[in-house]
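BUG-408 | component: ligand-complex export | severity: low

The export step for 2-acetamido-2-deoxy-beta-D-glucopyranose jobs runs without errors, but we want the raw record kept on the ticket for reference. Input record follows.
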Amino acid sequence: MGDVPGTSFHSKTTGHVSRSVKSLCTVATNVIIIVSSIFSLFIFVKLTGFYEQNRISIPCPKAAAKHRLQESQNITYSSKGVDKPPNKPKLVIFWYPGPGWDYMLLRDYAKPVFKSLGCKIDNCIYTEDKSLADEADAIVFIARSLGSKPRKLPHQRWIWVNHESSCYSEEAGGVWAGMFNWTITFRRNSTIFFPYGYAQKRPRPLTKNYTKTALNKTKLVAWMVSNCVTRSQRERYVSELQKYIPVDVYGACGPLKCSKRDDKNCLDKINRDYKFYLSFENSISTDYVTEKFWKMLDRDIVTVTRGPANYSRVGIKPEWHINTNDFKSPKDLADYLKYLDMNVTAYVKHLEWKNQYVGLYSKAEVYCDLCAKLNDPSEPVTWYPPGELNKWFIDGHCIPPNDLDFNT
Ligand SMILES: *[C@@H]1O[C@H](CO)[C@@H](O)[C@H](O)[C@H]1NC(C)=O
Ligand SMILES: *[C@@H]1O[C@H](CO)[C@@H](O)[C@H](O)[C@H]1NC(C)=O
Ligand SMILES: *[C@@H]1O[C@H](CO)[C@@H](O)[C@H](O)[C@H]1NC(C)=O
Ligand SMILES: *[C@@H]1O[C@H](CO)[C@@H](O)[C@H](O)[C@H]1NC(C)=O
Ligand SMILES: *[C@@H]1O[C@H](CO)[C@@H](O)[C@H](O)[C@H]1NC(C)=O
Ligand SMILES: *[C@@H]1O[C@H](CO)[C@@H](O)[C@H](O)[C@H]1NC(C)=O
Ligand SMILES: *[C@@H]1O[C@H](CO)[C@@H](O)[C@H](O)[C@H]1NC(C)=O
């Protein structure tokens, strides 16, 4: 994820975790808004006008949570006089390893964006205050930065949240072995499925002249990338492809530069000039389809994917992309792209479905799901025993590329 600086929808520089130096609550909140919104905001601006709402001042989440917790305790404990009233709000702690972190929209819980989701069941209080650990009903840990381990109480759900591919993940051992009850990941059968993005059907299809759009394009294939050596060896696939068709490489791994700070502008240019965009994942890993795919869904460019064997599992229809998997070799793929370049009618067919859907990055809605599950008394007692997270998430799910044997 986040191979291209500034293109990951939740990070500034290093993948999915960003730090800000200042820890003042309001400053941090603003930083988070900017960082986590780089990619989602322009969609929100167009669709919902959330940007305006985001600009209003936001209470410090930590202080607010503590206050709400106290408030609700005062009410429930004093009025009912029982130890565990049935509708006492569930306390969820986001266990950041240090101040100033943000991860996959976790902090959205403190924003109007989250409130506006109107969770059906919202009997939850979210906080980052580690001093409340013993009172927590659930603690959400970031898999690759677990931080220091608190004491675990039996009624608590500890949650492993991860968006790295199986090739770049590992279950923590030692004190963490067997600690996790639930998972939140991009894998289809996580306890709570949290993909990078999704497609939403438009109320009405767009009426666009895609032939006109297509005829305006002067270039063929664009690739934007900054992680040059990967487990999927996409770089080898692309060099082979380049023998047969020009591929313009933008970012740290290629000669062409786009303004990093103005990613939208850059994508706008690519969108206008190019017919094809390579959304090649850094790993071939079950269900691992990142923003590289989703950010192009809304654009009038045909996406070429290289990633997991089955994109349908995460809701991506075959006609939405050209998949390298369907071609014997990079040369065959190049031949097909060149054919589409010559045949506008056929090319436009690949574009036209885009008038039906809008691409959205995943929202903090998963935290509605989490809250609903925590409030559901029928949820079973369950956990991943030591080694089981590896078995489920990693073993056999980092797939070695099988399309790099170019001589046959
Ligand atoms: C709840 O009780 C705590 C301590 O007893 C107190 O400090 C706080 O002000 C009370 N909150 C409300 C809203 O009454
Ligand atoms: C996920 O699905 C696999 C098979 O696709 C199954 O073996 C496994 O038990 C499932 N895991 C969970 C947590 O449901
Ligand atoms: C779409 O644009 C093309 C090229 O400019 C033009 O020939 C065609 O008539 C247009 N179609 C419609 C329905 O406007
Ligand atoms: C065609 O490209 C030009 C610049 O090259 C741009 O100004 C114009 O908006 C484009 N038209 C369409 C229909 O995309
Ligand atoms: C791909 O996933 C879809 C949806 O889960 C399933 O219906 C289909 O059979 C799968 N295709 C293959 C080739 O496994
Ligand atoms: C161009 O594509 C259209 C639509 O797929 C097809 O019907 C037509 O035969 C193609 N023309 C050529 C010259 O290949
Ligand atoms: C959570 O996992 C622990 C093991 O780490 C287990 O003892 C406990 O019963 C589980 N709790 C729930 C509510 O599932």
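Assignee comment: Attached the raw record above. Confidence is low (pLDDT under 50) at residues 1-60, 74-85.
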